[in-house]
Fold ATP-dependent 6-phosphofructokinase.
Amino acid sequence: MPSLIPGSMESLPNNPPVPQKIKADTNGSLKNSNRLLDLRSSLSSVKVPPVKNGSEVKLRLGKKMGSESKPCMKIEYGDGGYVLEDVPHLTDYLPHLPVFPNPLQNNPAYSVVKQYFVNVDDTVAQKIVVHKNSSRGTHFRRSGPRQKVYFESDEVHACIVTCGGLCPGLNTVIREIVCGLSDMYGVNKILGIEGGYRGFYARNTVTLTPKSVNDIHKRGGTILGTSRGGHDTMKIVDSIQDRGINQVYIIGGDGTQKGASAIFEEIQRRGLKVAIAGIPKTIDNDIAVIDKSFGFDTAVEEAQRAINAAHVEAESIENGIGVVKLMGRYSGFIAMHATLASRDVDCCLIPESPFYLEGKGGLLEFIERRLKENGHMVIVVAEGAGQDLIAKSMESMNHEDASGNKLLLDIGLWLSQKIKDHFSSNKKMAINLKYIDPTYMVRAVPSNASDNVYCTLLAHSAIHGAMAGYTGFTIGPVNGRHAYIPFYRITEKCKKVVITDRMWARLLSSTNQPSFLSHEHVEDARNEDETPAHLLEGNSKNGHADEQVTDNQQMNGGGIKELMSK
Ligand SMILES: Nc1ncnc2c1ncn2[C@@H]1O[C@H](COP(=O)(O)OP(=O)(O)OP(=O)(O)O)[C@@H](O)[C@H]1O
Ligand SMILES: O=P(O)(O)OC[C@H]1O[C@](O)(CO)[C@@H](O)[C@@H]1O
Ligand SMILES: [Mg+2]
């Protein structure tokens, strides 16, 4: 029997949301006193103006288009241009689920906390720098424990899977999910899925207990193993169903979150009471919306060791050049932050900033000048930088990994060779170049102290969300506050360094390197910043009314406009 919680900030759903699968292909709408639930089968055709007083909820349902599946969107409008991009809830398609009081109310560690439970209406603003007349813009549901939960402790059968490349902190997140479920919610049935997505149907599982995971945060890698490729939605959901799993914690990058979204949609289609929670992971820090991904700080810190070594080598010998290659397939955040942190770097090359070697303003000219001035120099290059240059000078392979990610050519080796060739061919200067490739070293280490704490918060957010019945969500800090974010927001766009924004300008000013930017490049960068038309009414055409750029948004790939207005 569902219980009401006295004094609860949340009201139990008297009018539970309409089950999505029933209404999936209708054009009808349903109104109550202050809410409108609008169910459409097409994403693009809906145009409903925001309601002035009160709020309006729109649930946009996915429809298969070719092989791409459009996501479910649940959007609520409020006053002053307020938009809530909400995440799905189990009651969206299972309206009569029983609810239970949150066992944290009786937990001695948490019951002393004043207002430990998050108000159900709390949301987190994506835009925090506002003008007097700015609209309030997009918000996400605040994460944290709710007074009521949709799972009883002994009913929960959770599983955890890690997918994609390694990242410092994977083991910490696993540990914290297991310990958090057990300590906070008394959950004791937790399975580890081995070897990534394909482990659901092709590998063994391992039972995870607080005791078995106690020390794993001190190790790099993932105790569960990981993989690329092998995402077979039907087989994965069959496995979830056959094993009686009802909470799935999926740790991985953009590809993994796309896979999690497909699993969620299939779970929903089958009408299963299974919560799907994504925990975003990527060493490259290229996940949109969230402030930063776990392991990134650790990677930047670890990269300092390689940069230090390169600097020591370079400054100890005449015309010494240290070249360090760091990770960053499409985004140069590790290289940029490692450079800014180090102050020993003379030039940082990232995928977002095209560069050239020869001629006036080119890299080779700059190297020569810097060697004449300082006698040594350090170059940091992100692995995804200059791929166009290598492809031109070598036969491009165009190979992909099992997940469909482009396999990169080795920019570090190529660049080192080009520099050596240049200085030996024109005999201007004898140089001494040392190439250091610590790429896998920076992601194979255990997470540092601050990442460890961050991993705990992520794990707890995911647990509270799943216990509260939310599903089809990923989590992360938005402007410092943890939030539940719909999958499509994380997967629609990869976060990149904005080369016309403040942080890159700081880097250019600290290294004094050429920007390599022609007027066309700036224009291109400006155009790339055009956010794809978002589906939010009441916003400007790029979906961010009165957009104001902050350093935080720079991390999130926003901000070309700012430089232009400076
Ligand atoms: N569009 C997609 N739909 C379903 N599954 C996907 C999709 N893209 C990737 N996956 C699956 O997600 C898993 C991880 O993907 P991928 O190898 O791209 O790593 P990632 O999660 O992006 O992490 P990393 O940051 O290390 O690249 C793989 O098992 C892959 O099959
Ligand atoms: O683990 P793999 O397959 O070698 O992939 C390496 C890639 O993974 C990442 O670490 C994360 O996407 C990239 O920086 C890098 O290009
Ligand atoms: Mg990826």
In short: The longest helix spans residues 296-315. The mean pLDDT is 83.
